[in-house]
Amino acid sequence: MQYSMGIDAGGTYTDSIIIRDSDGKVMDSNKALTTYPDLLAGIKNSIDGLDEQYLKDVKMVSVSTTLATNTILEKNGYPVGLILVGDYEVPERMQAEYYTVVKGGHDHHGAELTSLDMEAVEAFVNKVKDRVSAFAVSSYFSIRNPAHELAIKARLKELGFSVVCGHELSLDLGAYERGITAYLNAQLIPIASQFILSIREEIRRRGMDARLLMLKCDGSVVGINEALEKPIESIFSGPAASLVGASHLSGLETCAVIDVGGTSTDVSMLENGLPELCSEGAVVGGWQTKVKAIRMETSAMGGDSHVWVKNMKINIGPRRVIPLCVAAVKYPGFLEILKKGRIPGTMHLEENIQPTKFFIRTGLEASNLGSYEKELFDRIGDTPASLNDIFWETQKTLSPGLLDSLLRKRLIQAIGFTPTDALHVLGDYRGWNTEASVAGAKLLERYTHKDYIELCKSIKKDVAKNMALNLMSFVLKDVPSQEIEKIIVSDRFAQFKMKIPVVLIGGPVVAYTEELNRILDADIIVPEYSDAGNAVGAVVGKGIKRVEILIKSAYTKDKKRLVLLFSPQGRETFGSYPEALEYAESLGRRLVMEYMTEAGLDKGRVQIEMSKKDIALSEAGTMPVESKLVFVGIGMPKV
Prior knowledge:
Blueprint: E1 3-9, E2 13-20, E3 26-33, H1 40-48, H2 52-55, E4 58-65, H3 67-73, E5 80-85, E6 98-102, H4 118-128, E7 134-139, H5 147-158, E8 163-165, H6 175-205, E9 211-215, E10 220-223, H7 224-229, H8 237-250, E11 255-260, E12 265-271, E13 274-275, E14 283-284, E15 287-288, E16 297-299, E17 305-310, E18 313-320, E19 322-323, H9 324-330, H10 334-340, E20 358-361, H11 371-379, H12 387-394, H13 400-408, E21 412-416, H14 419-426, H15 434-444, H16 452-475, H17 481-489, E22 496-497, E23 502-505, H18 513-519, E24 520-521, E25 524-525, H19 533-540, E26 542-555, E27 561-567, E28 570-574, H20 577-598, E29 607-615, E30 626-635
Parallel strand pairs: 1-4, 4-9, 5-6, 5-7, 7-8, 10-26, 11-23, 19-21, 22-24, 23-25
Antiparallel strand pairs: 1-2, 2-3, 9-10, 11-12, 12-13, 12-16, 14-15, 17-18, 20-21, 26-27, 26-30, 27-28, 29-30
Helix pairs in contact: 3-6, 8-19, 9-15, 11-13, 14-15, 14-16, 15-16, 16-17, 16-18
């Protein structure tokens, strides 16, 4: 008997699950805390809880993670320098901290418009090289000719820097969006490398002879080598896994899925077994990318989002923290620290200054810290401490903003009150230390008009409202979310009705079903193993590869007709249309099969479909001026 194992490393929990290959039955599952920032211990603990009789016969391991998504949402990515080549319109509120625009670029036929200004590139690199970990490059119409991107990459590699090019990630139009995609990809590579290599090492250590795959954000699996190069494609692999897993666990091919994770809430939908993909590319954390992902509605509110109070108002998120109930188990003595903590004044309250907010080192070694950063870091040890405690110890005013810098560098992590704590107070969930949650709620009630029970009920209601808002914003995508919210928060005589079942996935989601039913008229389903739905989705995903090839007519300066072919391999020139078409059909199928082989999928079980769309000047059978060929291959893991 052979089995497959799915692993999902989320922001809070790492789930592992064993599925029997012959019929897809779940045989065993286990949940462990995700260990931060080194994921290996959490992965090991999760696998340790599985029955060893199955592990020896596991032949495939597939993983998914929300870590890339959470990194972008929490703005904790590694610093990257963005180089834009060509005539760009850069938004006024550019989110990239380090970027430049230099001369260069090509036209839609791949001909050079302006020569590349390599001196400007090198000047920018020398300016920011001590402040970034890698560079991202996007050149105008690099999808027609990537020569300028490749020239910059070669030069920067000579100087010893890591470089990601836009054309390597997307062949869609939109040079700026390709640049953003490359920028985010470069931010995520160190994080993805640590995650994937940790799993690979753990599989080897256990003597398991298993192939390693990773779930992409379109719900398909990918070979691990490509996952290392393109971690941006995993930005929504956690939610994609929840969609695939929810369908498998519920037996439904048409349903809406709400996935409540530690950091975010994600909504998506399957119709007849197929998800809808984003036509413009995935949007995450306000960034428009060119990544082909499942269309979803996502918000930075999850079970472990930080609950904080300012001006008597309760705020939830966007950052994830370690819940008080978990910290009380994880760190001996923390409960006493929580109870005896100094209470900040109402006027001083902000996100990092709360009666329930504490900080602790992650274990990473600090380097290249400024003097003020170092002073603050030295005051934070292996015992949780609040900024208020540090102030009384040093008698110095320390900027809360310094904490953000240390958090981004993953040198410290935060502890705070969360919706998970609220569920503990209300008795809806008792997985950790309830006393710590109650103590935290009683501290927060001093800054609101509610007692601690009402405070927790309000938090639970807000999370349920957020789930409903995400769901209806997804379904009614052309309706402004503000209008949808008016109906959701109204206590009047109208509510939304769902015509298809709604499947809940993640942690203690069953606790929200009653509250959600008060807001929505829907058939809400919480299937068995819903708390490990992402791990299930990781292991039941198919291999899908999409290859696009464009054939265009062009003319030389002396008006000689040429045929240009643009593919993931670059630009090629042919003397005739039939010659180019024959080559394109062969190339597309070959690229699909190479991908499937690299991913470790069964070549004998790959189905390839080709669609062709022509643009012609007349219907008289003349040669098209443009042909677009799309190859879609679907493969299954080897059994």
